Amino acid sequence: MIVFIWRQMMKTRQFDAVLFDMDGVIFDSERAVMDCWTTLAEKYNIKDIEQSVLACTGTTMVRTREIMLERYGDDFPYDDYAHEASIMYHKRYDGGRLPMKKGVAELLGFLKKNGKKIALASSTRRQTVENQLREAEIYDYFDGIVCGDMVSRSKPAPDIFLKACELIGTEPEKSYAIEDSYNGIRAAYAGGLRPIMVPDLLPANEEMEKLTEKVIENLFEVMNYLENIKD
Fold first, then answer.
1. Among 20, 174, 209, 214, which lies 20 to 30 A Cα-Cα from 200?
2. Per CATH, which fold does 2-28+100-227 belong to?
C-alpha cells in the first residue's frame, strides 16, 4: 500500500532531467556481449556462461573481472578470453552496426523538445561510450556523460548517478533514471532518483518492483509515461 501511494505521489511531480544507462537501454549491446561470450564458451567449454555474464550486467570492467574469477577460480584465463571477446565484439558491431533499442531517437527528441536535461550514466568506459554514441549519431542529445572509469565505485553504488546530476545541474529527486539492470536500479534508488526499469536480459523481480517508480516494457511506453507527468 505504501509503495502504491508513493508511486502515485511521484507521478504527479514534474521532473527536470532523465539519466540513461547505455548498455541494454540505448543499445542492444548486452545481447551482443552475451552472443560473443557464448561463442567463446562453445570454443573453450566454459560452463554456465549465460548466468555468469548476467551476473556482470551493469558493472564495470574491473568488477566484471572479479565476478568471473570468483565464479571460475583464480586460474581462469579471464583476461585472454575478455580480449578475444572484445575483438569479436568490435569486428561485429563497430562502425554504427550496434543495434539501437526501439524508441531511443523518439524519446531523446521528445525530451529535448520539452526542455529536459539529458545525461548518460554508464558503467562502460568513456572512450567506448563516446564512440558508440557518435557512430549512432545521438551524441549531441546528451548534456553530460559520466562513465565507469570516471567514478571510484560502480553500480549499485549511486556515485555515477549523483555525479551525472551534478554535472548537468539537476537534483536527483527531480531526475528519472532509465535502467535495465538490477545494479542500475539499485544505484538510482540509492541516489534518490526516480528509477524506471525497462527490462532487457533480466526480467523485473520483486525487488525491482519495489525499488522502481515503474517497470515499462519499452522506450516508446516510457515516452508516453513521461508525457503524462503533471505538475
1. 174
2. Rossmann fold (3.40.50)
